[in-house]
Amino acid sequence: MVSGCTKLARNVNMEKLKNNYLFPEISRRELEHVKKHPNVQLISLGTGDTTEPIPKHLRHVQRKIYHTLSTVEGYRGYGLEQGDKVLRKAIADTFYGHLRVKSNEVFVSDGAQSDISRIQLLLGSGVTIAVQDPTFPAYIDSSVIIGQTGNFHEATKKYQNVVYMPCGPQNSFFPDLSKTPRTDVIFFCSPNNPTGYVASKRQLHQLVEFAKTNGSIIIFDSAYAAFIEDGSPRSIYEISGAREVAIEISSFSKFAGFTGVRLGWTIIPDELLYSNGFPIINDFHRIVTTSFDGASNIAQAGGLACLSPVGLKEIRSVINYYKENRKILMETLASLGLTVYGGINAPYLWVHFKGSKSWDVFAEILEKTHIITVPGSGFGPGGEEYLRISGFGRRDDMVEASRRLRSFFNTRTKHFPFLSSASNTN
Amino acid sequence: MVSLTFFSSASSLSSSPSKIVKSSLDFELKKLGGCTKLVRNVNLEKLKNNYLFPEISRRELEHVKKHPNVQLISLGTGDTTEPIPKQITSDMSNFAHALSTVEGYRGYGLEQGDKVLRKAIADTFYGHLHVKSNEVFVSDGAQSDISRIQLLLGSGVTIAVQDPTFPAYIDSSVIIGQTGNFHEATKKYQNVVYMPCGPQNSFFPDLSKTPRTDVIFFCSPNNPTGYVASEKQLHQLVEFAKTNGSIIIFDSAYAAFIEDGSPRSIYEIPGAREVAIEISSFSKFAGFTGVRLGWTIIPDELLYSNGFPIINDFHRIVTTSFNGASNIAQAGGLACLSPVGLKEIRSVINYYKENRKILMETLASLGLTVYGGVNAPYLWVHFRGSKSWDVFAEILEKTHIITVPGSGFGPGGEEYLRISGFGRRDDMIEASRRLRNFFNTRTKHFPFLSSASNTN
After folding, report:
1. CATH of B86-340, one of 3.40.50.2000, 3.40.640.10, 1.10.4160.10, 3.30.70.260
2. Hey, of A298, A318, A394, which one would you mutate to test binding to chain B, going by the most B CBs within 10 A of its CB?
3. Nearest CB to B289: which of A7, A78, A275?
4. What is the pLDDT of residues A405-423, one digit of tens each?
5. pTM for the full predicted model
6. Handedness of CA A273, A279, A285, A288 (dihedral sign)
C-alpha cells in the first residue's frame, strides 16, 4: 500500500467497470494515431460529433440574450430546475403536439448523457435492467455505477444481472420478446445507436404490451428521431398505452448541433406510477431540484430559437446534409460488396465483417486509411464483427473517406478476410 | 387521468414545511390500476421534505398570490441579481455567433472541460498552490458536482456534515443510499454524523468529539452561517482527516467574499492535497447562477485505501454521467478570468458586500443577534427560543420579506434565520426600512428578540 492513502474504500461499482467509457477510448486512439502520423489528414467517422454550424437564426436571438444578461432589467439568475416554462411548452408542442404531452411532464436538461445518470439516481440500485445488444453504452455503464449489475463476465462479455436482448439481422434488429426475461426497466433506443435500425409501430406496440404485462418501464431514447425517413414512430407516445409505461429521453445534440451547447429533455408522464401508486414524476422532480440546477439559460434560449419556424427550417436542412453524407457512405460501402445495415433512418451505418474481431477491423482501417470508426464490440457482445460508421462530418471528408475506403477495399478484396461475399444492404 | 397534488394546502402561516402526502393516498391509487411493478427507490422514500429552496419558492408564490399588490423582497434563496459584466457576455455572444459559422463551430468538448479554461482556473485561484490543470474538472455547477461526487463515492461510505449545513450534501447522500432513515425526534438522518457549529464553539466543530467518517463535507465561508474557518482551524481539520484516513469535500463557493485573509482554498493547508477534494462555482462569484459553471479539484495524490487514484474514477464518472459544461458557459468563464473580467466581477462582489453591510447594521441596531455577514453574503440571525419556520412566516406575513428558516439547514439551524445579501440596493434599503419598522413596533411583543446585541 502506497503511503498517503486515505482509508476510503474504492466504490465497488466503479471496480466492476471493465474499461474506459467507449468514446474517450476512441478519442485516445485518435490522438495516438495523429501523433504517430502527424502529416496525415485523419477523418473521423467515429464519435457521432456534429460538424455543421447551428442555425444562423440563433444569431440575432442570442445576441439579444447576452446583451440582456448585462442589463439590470434583463438579468436572470437561477431558473426553474425543471427548465424554462416557455421552452418546455415549445418542446411539448413541437415534438408531442398531437400526443398530448403536457409541459409539466417535460424536464429540460443539459443533455441525455446527464439525464441517463439522473434517471439511474431515481431508480436506485435495486432495479433490474434490460438493454438491446448492441446498445449505446451509457445505459449499461450508468447501471454498473449505480449498483444494479453484478460483475463483468469475461467469457460472455456481459455484466451479470443485466438482460441483453440480441438485435441483429437474425431478428430484423428487434428483440424476440417471447424469449426476454422480465426486468423492471427496459432501455430502448430507436432509431438505434449503433445499428441505425428504427422500430416500426407494430414492434413498439409489442414492446409496450410486453412492458405492460410485466409491469416494467421503458426508457425510450429518441435522440435520433429527426433522421427518420419512412414514417416510423418518432416518439414512444405514438403507441397507445405508452404513457403508463414509458419515460422518453431526447436531445438537441444531433437534432440541432448542440453537442457542445448541451441541451436535452426527458418526458415523465403523470400516469407513470411506481408499484405503490406514487407518481414517478414527483421523484424525478425531487432529483432534478437536488442533483441539478437546470440547463444553462443561454442553451435554453438557443433551444427555444431552434423551435421557431425559421429555426426548424434551418435545422431540417442541416439534417438533410447529414443524411446526404450517410447516403454517400452507404452507396460506397454497398458498391464494395460490404454488408451494411442501418443508414436509412439514422445517421449510423452498421457494417458487418463476418468472422472478424471488431477492434481488429477498426485498427486495420485506421492504420491503412486514417479513418476513425467505432468497433461494434464497444456496444456490447452483439456488436462483435461489426463496425459503426457515422455520417456526421463535412461533405469533403465524406467524399475523401469514400475514396480511401474504395481504394482500401478494392486492393484488398482478395486478401481482406473480413469482407463478406454477399452484398446485402438493409 | 388522476391529477394529484402532493403538497399540503396549509396556510402560509403554518409553522412546518409542506409534507408529501404518503401512505393513505398511495393505497387509494393502487386501486386505480395502471401502476407498474417498479418498486419506488427506498432512498427517495427516506427524504423527509421537498428540497429546501423549491419549498421557499413555493411559499413565495403562495404569498404573492395572496397579496398580489405587495412588493415582495427576497432575502431568501441566494440568487444573484446584478448583471453580468458586458465584457463577459460579449465574449459569450461572440463564441455563440461563431458556432453558427463553419470555421467557428464546435461540437463535443472534452467532458473534463476546455483545456484553456482549466488552466485559467488553476492559475487564477490556485496559482501558488500547485493545482495542475489536469486536476481541474469543469462542470455545470456545484449542485451537479455534489451528486456526481456521490455517484463516485457510492452508498457504502459514511459522511459527516456541519450542522447547520447546505442541504444538498445531506439530500444527495440520502439519495445515493449512504444514510438511514430520518429520525423525527432529533431531525437527523441516521448514519450521518452532524457536527454542531454554533456560537458555543465559534462555528467550528469540536473535532475531539467527532466520530470518524469516510467523508467530511465542509463549507467555508459557510452557507448558511456565514462563518469562515481560520488557517489554524483548517489545519486541525486536515490533521483530523489525515489521522482518520478520511477525505474532506471542501466547498469554497463563497471564497470571493472573504475579507480578513482567511484561507480561500483548502489547499492553502499543507497536507490537504492528500485528503481533500474542493468544489467551487462561478454562480456567486460571477453571477452565473443561470449560466451554470463550476469546477471540482481532485488532486493526483488523493488515493483510495487500495492506492487507486480517486481522480481516475472521477474522470470515469465525468465521461459517463456527463458530457461537459456548455461550451458557451465555458467561454464566459474564461472571459471572467481575464484581468478586465476579474476587475468587473470584483465590483459586483463589492456591491453585494455593501448590501450585506446595510442589512447587518440594520439588524444589529435593532438589538438582534447577528452572526456571519463579514466574510460571506449571508447573515445568520438568532431568535432564541423560536421555531425558525414560525419566524420565517411571521416576517413574511408582516413585512413581505422572504428569508430562509434555519431548520432547513439541519437541527442546528432551529432558532435561526438566514438572510441573504444578494439583491438590488433599493430592495436592501426598503427591506431594512420594513424590518426596522417591524421590530421596533414589536420589541415588547416579539418573543424571539434576544436582549443582547452581540454581533460576530
Report:
1. 3.40.640.10
2. A298
3. A78
4. 999 998 876 555 555 443 3
5. 0.93
6. negative
